[in-house]
Structures are given as C-alpha cells and as structure tokens.
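Subgroup meeting minutes
Present: P.N., E.W., G.H.
Scribe: E.W.

1. P.N. recapped why we're keeping a running log of single-chain structure predictions: easier to compare across weeks, and new members can see raw inputs and outputs side by side.
2. G.H. added today's entry (200 aa).
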Amino acid sequence: MCSSVSGVIISADADGYTQGTNISTVFEGMTLSSVGKHPPSGLDGSVYSYESELATTGESVFGHNLTNHTEWYFDEYPASHHPNDFGFRADFDMPANMVSIDIIADDTWDYASLRTYDSSGTPLESYSNYADLPVVPGYVFSATIQRDSFDIAYVIVGGIFANSASAVYLDNLTANIIPEPGTVLLFGFGGLALLRTRRK
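Output recorded in log:
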C-alpha cells in the first residue's frame, strides 16, 4: 500500500500464491469475488490464483472455481448470449476515484468491459476496448477509469458479447482510495510536525 495526499494506492496481483489458492481476502483495502447472474454458472464466489503464460506481471492471473479457471465473461446482453456469467468483482473498503486492471485477450476479437458502481449499486463510468485494435491473442488492454470524486465502491470486469461471447484473462488490479480516518489523522500529525520543525 502506497499513500499520497490525494488517496491511498492499493493493489491486487495473483503472483506469489500457489496454484488454486483462494486470494479473495488477502489484499489490503479490498475484497475480491466471482459473480454470476445465472444459477447454472456454479460459481462459489471466490477468486483464486492460477498460472498462465498470458500473465502481465509474473506468472499468475485471477481465476475462479469453474473448469475454465482463468476466463472471465460478464455481459449485459439477454441471457441467451451468456447463460453462464463468471465476472470478476472487487469491493473497496473505502471509496475510490481511480481503478485500473489489465485485460488480456486469449483469442482474436476478444472484447471486455470494466464497470464501476457506487455504494448503492448505481452504475458509474465504464470502459470497453471496442476502439482498441487489433485484438489478437495476448493483447493487453490496461483499462483505467479516473473519476473527479471518490465514489467508486466496487467494480465488475469481464468479457462482453461482440459478434460472439468473449472471455478474457485478468491481472494486476490497482485502485486509489480515500485513506481511512486513522490514516488521515496520521497525515495531519505529520503536517503539524513539519510546521513545528520549520518554525524552530
């Protein structure tokens, strides 16, 4: 965790954990989960570390408990397009104003979306890679959303329907969140200490 006057940068990465390790609650400042809109998905709600040659950092990416562990797909099209959603979700302990994640194409024409929501579940901004070409296997999209205020409570990421269902790999999540009250106090005390030092 890295702190600044404007917020605290938190991050999550699947590297450093053995294959299949549940990493849902190991990262400071956030909780990871797998979500699906349809019962047949069979998701257990957790996020795991799985090795992949497509990892953007190290050797592992975010995964779930289904057989296609490392593929993520979460769309808003009618259910006929996606009867088995398996989206990646990150909930932040404190509201964020910036979120970034690496979206990796494992096939041609893989498209995806990063969606942000406030604490009441209202959609905020979203990012999709429709404008990014070419989309080829191994192509990485660094999806980033920057807001003027700290109002992002959680995000959901996954492939989207573009001529056909697109599943993508995910890695390297970062967010800039409001410091917790105790951290803000530390910033304040630090500032007072600097003022006292300068006055001497």
